Amino acid sequence: MRVTAGLLVAAVLLVQTVAAAAPAAAATMPLPPPLTSDAQGVELCSAVGSRPDRCLQSFVPGPVRNDEVVLVRLDGSGRPAVVELEQRLRLTGEGDYAIRERGPARQARTLGELDPPVTKFGAVVWQGFSPGERELAALLTLDAGLEAVRLPFAVTASFTPAGGQPQPLGPGASVPGPGTVRVVVDNRTVQPTELPAGTDATATSLAPVLDALRLRAVTDRARLEVAAGPVRKDVPGAQPLGTRLPAAGAGLPARVEVATAGRTQGEQSVPLNLALSLTGEGVTPTSPGATAVAGGAQLVGTLPGGQQVELAVAVAGPARLALSGTAVPALDPRSLTPPAPATSWAQWARSAPDASARRAALDLLVASAAAGARAASYSPYLGADLPGTGSTVFRLSFAEPAALPEVAERLTLRPGPLAVTGVAVLLLFAHGALLWRRS
């Protein structure tokens, strides 16, 4: 009898533990869907009063891989002076295709054997026939002024001479003498939005998704560090640099079983994996966390939404600096670390976490899905409505002096010539009045 009673107590405790770790699912909560920047969708055309039959959309015979490199060349203050996009499309399937991208692009130059896309009225249009596989490639020149507010980051550059005030760098990122050069990168991907909210979910349903997201975050970060390092090598299990982030229905489940589902006001943003270096003659690092590299300094890390990072260097004398930056939408591996002492989310799930721990894990999954959804605004950057996958990488550098836009000479009023002109006008009127009286 004592054994039976002991087993009964143990069974009750086990049931209570399992119940705490696995609440009954009574609702389905959708994860945030990807935010596309397709400006030719039927919904958007209808919203501005255009007829649906005039809302031309892309059509392709099969999946497309769309790889983009956004080349951002900055002036001495850090504003984009030239923005170009190197695009490579790999089409699969046999049939006609018409790919219409938002742009706007000023011009296109082919990077392959086929003709470049048409850029009439700023839109980017590829048309033709695919025999089964086709590769398209072009270098598109975008409008730097428009892209300055659309890029996921903003850059500020300045030079502070010894005992002086901050000022923009000279043409070609030149500095006239000793001082400090600062480059600040600001992650501007934060936007308010309405997010799904759930009261509870099973630990066993959350753990595999969070472990997969953490693995993706860690390998992406390692891939960037290798790409920014002096020696290039493969990272086991890593996606190509800049591969699109997992999102609901595209690498993540579209829905999650929860106890109760609702909505809440929040915000979503995209962390950026960032590698930034400043080099030049007589350059030494002064920023905390910066490492010395050949001829300068480098920062490598993950920049969360709404935050900024500064790379500062001391310059010994007159010099011309070179900026090399790589930024890609990413997940922050620090936020995806499971609570100690667990070393994986699977191990965390086996520890029978309580309701508050499960709720925190559910919120983390929603935040990660929201980051992937927001990242769809930047990858693909041109916003083509194409089935398939691809990658987007942002490259930063200082513009060459010849690439900087010319600044018109400011007109100023000079009192001397202005006074002479006024006297001449008065004499003209007086002479005219005298002739009128004599007539």
- SS strand fraction: 35-45%
- What ranges have pLDDT less than 50 throughout 5 or more consecutive residues? 1-21, 37-45, 47-54, 407-439
User: What is the number of helical segments per DSSP (H or I, 4+ residues)?
Assistant: 7
Helix content: 10-25%
Give the biggest sheet: 9 strands, mixed
Q: What is the SS-derived class?
A: alpha+beta
- Globally, the shape reads globular
Q: Strands of the biggest beta sheet: in what spatial order? A: 4-5-3-2-21-20-14-17-16
What is the number of E strands? 21
Please write the string of helix (H) and strand (E) elements: HEHEEEEHEEEEHEEEEEEEEEEEHHEH
Structural Rg:
29 Å
Distance between the termini: 138 Å
Q: Residue-averaged pLDDT, rounded? A: 84
Structure, explained:
This protein is α+β, with helices and mostly antiparallel strands and 439 residues long. Helix content is 24%, strand content 36%. The strands form 6 sheets. Strands 4-5-3-2-21-20-14-17-16 form a 9-stranded mixed β-sheet. A hairpin with a 5-residue loop joins strand 2 (64-74) and strand 3 (80-101). Residues 1-21, 37-45, 47-54 and 407-439 have low confidence and may be disordered.
